[in-house]
Structures are given as structure tokens and as C-alpha cells.
Amino acid sequence: MKVLIIGATSAIAKASARIYAELGCSLHLIARRDDQLALLASDLLVRGASKVSHSMLDLNKFAEHEKTLDAAFTELGGVDIALICHGSLPDQEKVEQNFKQALKEINTNGISVISLLTELAPKFIEQQQGTIAVITSVAGDRGRQPNFVYGAAKSLVSTYLQGLRGKLLAHNVNIVDIRPGLVDSPMTAQFPKGPLWSSPERIAQKICEKHPPRQSHRLRSRLLASYHVRSQRDPRICFQAAKILNREVPQTNVPNSLNQSTLYVDLDGTVIKTDLLYESILLLLKKSIFQALLIPIWLIKGKANLKHQLSKRVHIPVELLP
Questions:
Q1: Which is more confident, 38 or 228?
Q2: Which residues have C-beta within 8 Å of that of residue 265, sequence separation ≥ 6?
Q3: What are the backbone angles phi and psi of residue 224, rounded to the nearest 5°?
Q4: Rounded to whole angstroms, how far apart are CA atoms 29 and 23?
Q5: In Å, how far are 6, 7, 103, 139, 233 from 112, measured between CA atoms?
Q6: Is 292 helix (H, G, I), strand (E, B) or coil?
Q7: Angle ∠(158,113,127) on CA atoms, nearest 5
């Protein structure tokens, strides 16, 4: 398998590259620091990679994207998986007060990815196969006060990926939006860590695992809120892609067009490992045991009424659902 990793010196990218190396893959690495690339390439060869090449690129120099990707495809002789991992986490207060800083971060986290995807798409169409996977963020789900500039850039990429997925599906090219939750990496070094944080190695294992996905078509991990569970806002989210990385989903489950068909999936036990009704009841008990005493009364009018009453009283943080 031939794997192209962009932003290859990020924590998740390095962990993923090591797994692909142990599988004997051929890899081409792209990042902005040549010294780190050389060290990583040597490590991957020792771990079993059949071939490792690398290119140095400042990803904010958009004019250099085309020739760098051309060289990567030539070096590998085609690409089966392109994994885009680069990004930066800005100081929210600085970027919301300084447009030049905001533009720099939006270019890094958003526009540079769009530029890469614009170059990659025709190459994969020409191959008529492959997967383009992009690490985005749950911060792109909605604007949050602590990081809305970063979130806006990630939302831009995720929206672009949604359209690109439908465009390339007919060409047997799969687009995967990977949205890790809280990851303990150098980018988040300044934040206090807790039990809900995951390691780059764990995220990488979920990205690279060879086992076929379950019917939810998603990576399922307690700490990997990768696939933005948003049942109330967008039921179409249950259909993510025809394939996830190198793991195929039966073609009978793939609609002819994302614009023409919509797949609805019950969240409980599929996209998430829990039951939203139970989660809601537990939250209500934590919030007000006196209100929880009304549950039998609400249930008399039916389960639908019970869910309706619970939804009015509790809010489930979907980013943290298993």
C-alpha cells in the first residue's frame, strides 16, 4: 500500500506512519522541517516500511503545492491513501483582535487544506481509486467562545469535504473526515489533561486499524468523537463514506448519489456505544432528583413523551459521547 502523509511530523501523523511502516507500506512524507523528516524516515525504515521518501514544504506556500504533490505521486507511483494531518491551535484572544493573525491561522487550518484537496482530487480521479483522509476537529461543529477562529477554519474544511465526497464517490475515491476529540499532543500542551483525553497513538490505531468498520461506517472509540454525532441537527451525518481508509464497505450499502439518497441510522448502539435515553435520565438525576421523580408520570403517556420531556430539561454534550 502506498501512503502519502502531509503534515507528517505532527503527533497523530507520526503515530500513524509508524503503524503503516510496520505493515510494510511505502510512504512519502511532507512537512516543513527537513531535519525532522529525515529522522522520521529513518525510524520508519527500521520499523519495516518498504520505502520512505520525503519532501519539505511550507503548507502556507500554496503555489508550491502542485509540484510537491506531483513529485510525491511520481515517487510512490500512485497513492492509495493520502492523510492530511497538519494544523495549529491559535491563541483565540490574539486572533480575534488581529486580522493578520486570524488570516494566518485560517490559511494554515483551512485554506491550505482546500488547496491540497484541489490538487489531490484530479489525481485520485485519474487513478479511479483511493482514499483521502483529513484530520479536522470537533471544534468545527459549532462556534465555541474559546476557539471560534480555529473552529471556523475546521468547519470550512469539513463542509468542503462533504461536497467533495459526493463528487468523487462515482470515481471510487473515498473522502474521510476524521474529527478527534481531546488529544494529548504538543499542540495542546498548555491545557490540563484529564480522563477524557486520548493519546495520538490511540487515535492512530483507530485510523489505521485493518478490521472492517461496523454498520455505522465510523471509527468508534470512547475518546474519539471523530464523526461529529449531530442527530438533532443533521440526520444525514449517519452516512459518512463508502470506505474508511483502506477498509471496504459493501457496495450494496452505498447510495448512488449523496444528493439523491439519505441513509438514516439509529444512533444508539451504532454511531455511539450508549443509549441517549439512559444518558438523559442519568443527567436529569444528576441535575435534579426531584424532577427525576416525574419520569414515571411522563412514561405513562408513552416513551416518546418521556424523551420529549427529558430533551427539554437536559443537554447531552455530544462531543463526549462514546
A1: 38
A2: 215, 216, 238, 239, 271
A3: -110, 90
A4: 16
A5: 11, 11, 11, 18, 28
A6: helix
A7: 95
The SS3 call for residue 60 is coil
Q: Taking a C-beta distance cutoff of 8 angstroms, is the pair 263, 218 a contact?
A: no
Across the chain, the runs of DSSP E, i.e. the strands, are 2-6, 26-31, 51-56, 81-84, 130-135, 173-178, 243-244, 247-248
Amino acid identity of residue 243, one-letter, is K
| Strands 2-6 vs 81-84: parallel, antiparallel or unpaired | parallel
Of 86-95, 136-145, 191-200, the range with the lowest mean pLDDT is 191-200
Q: Give every CB contact of residue 68 below 8 A, 6+ residues apart in sequence.
A: 30, 55, 57
- CATH domain 2-253 topology: Rossmann fold (3.40.50)
Residue the block writes with cell 439519505? 262
Specify which residues 4 forms β-bridges with.
28, 82
Q: Tell me how far apart the alpha carbons of residues 3 and 6 are, in angstroms, rounded to a whole number.
A: 10
Regarding pTM above 0.85, the answer is no
For the chain, what are the domain ranges? 2-253, 276-320
